[in-house]
Each structure stands twice: as C-alpha cells, then as structure tokens.
Amino acid sequence: MSTTAVTPLTTAAAETLIAAARAAAEEAGVPVGVTVLDAGGHLLAFRRDDRAVLISGETSTRKAYTALQLDAPTADLVDLVKPDGPFHSLPTALDRPLLFIAGGVPVHRDGRLIGAVGVGGGAPEQDHSFATAALKELAR
User: How crowded is residue 133: how many other Cβ atoms within 10 Å of its Cβ?
Assistant: First the structure.
C-alpha cells in the first residue's frame, strides 16, 4: 500500500472537467448538466445549460455519485443491476441515490480515486462520451 499523498481534485480541475464536458456536448448539440464531486462525494462544481432538461442536474449528480462510490464508469454497471444481475437490489438497498445509467465516470490521479464527473441530459451513450472527453482534457 502506497503512503504517498495524492493531490486532491481541485476546484480548478473541476472547472476544467465542466468546461470540457460542456464543449463536447455543445459540439454534439446536446444541452447538459454536469456535476463534479471530490473523493468524499462533496460537490466541487456544477453547471446546467439553460436549455437542458431540469432533471439533468439530478441525473448528473447521481451518476457522478454512483461512479465515485463504485469506482467504475456507470456505463459498465448497467447490466449488473438488471433483474438477473448480481447487484439487482443495490439501487434500492442504500439510503443514498445511485443511478445506473451511462454518464458517470470516476476521476483518478496516480492510480487513486480523487473524484467523479457525471453528465446528464443526452442519451446515455452521449453523456458517457461527454464525461470521458472531460477526463481526456483533464489528463492533458
């Protein structure tokens, strides 16, 4: 186990994630809500486009929270919670709201989980692509 400290996700990095996800969504013509959480699940940044459906704020936040708690992209978790999946009862077993729809991705630095970004407002595949575009921009 490494004892090396990892720099936490900063508000500046969160703003980079928001801007990159929104740029990717804008290029696709999709108004979205984007949420960035730190490693403790606390809100670092949020932005909902004027034309985005109102629920996109809630879905982006729940997607980010789900990706953070399970340290996995929500796109990879969808089949696990289907009626025949191994985690089918997980969405209702916890007090905190999880959302198993593509669009949430964990953020890592030096192999450690430091936060998550969630995007809501487009089709699940679109939201996932916007969130992964944000990660790529942050890694630059």
Answer: 20
- CB contact set of 34 (below 8 Å; sequence gap of 6+): 17, 18, 21, 22, 25, 45, 46, 47, 48, 60, 117, 118, 119, 130, 134
**pTM metric for this prediction:** 0.93
Q: List the Cα angle 51/57/62 in 5-degree steps.
A: 150
Instruction: Identify the CA nearest to 67 among candidates 110, 103, 34.
Output: 103
Residues 6+ apart with CB under 8 A from 107: 9, 17, 36, 113, 114, 115, 116, 117, 135, 138
55 CB-near residues (< 8 Å, 6+ apart): 120
Contact 129, 4 (CB under 8 A): no
> CA–CA separation, 86 vs 80, rounded Å?
6
Rounded to 5 degrees, φ, ψ at 80 are -70, -25
Q: How many CB atoms lie within 10 A of CB 71?
A: 10
List pLDDT tens digits, range 84-129: 888 888 777 777 788 999 999 999 999 999 999 999 999 999 999 9
Backbone angles phi, psi at 83, to 5 degrees: -50, -30
